[in-house]
Here is the input.
Amino acid sequence: PVYAEFSLEAKCYRPGIDGLGATRVGVKEVSRLISRIRHRQFGVLVTTSVVHKQAYQEVREDRHPIVFISGRDIAEILIKAGYNAKESVEQYLQTEFPV
Here is the structure.
């Protein structure tokens, strides 16, 4: 096994669909994650939407060890796993995570 310490930030924001603009993860949210990262750790930011260009550029320019997983990434993972329709995703969620 490989052990790694990391900080995780997750945001369930509105993606850009149905004619509505996306609610973007901005500099404020990313800076909060950066402040939680300690020596030899990395950060993971997951969002159902997108990361604002300025926030992304600042992370890359300053070489912060952060991995971004956006709504598109989540959709591509689900599609590769065979969940390519709303109904199949809903069924999977109800089966694996019953309420």
About this structure: The longest strand covers residues 6-11. The helical segments are 27-36, 53-61, 71-80, 86-96. Strands lie at 6-11, 42-47, 66-69.
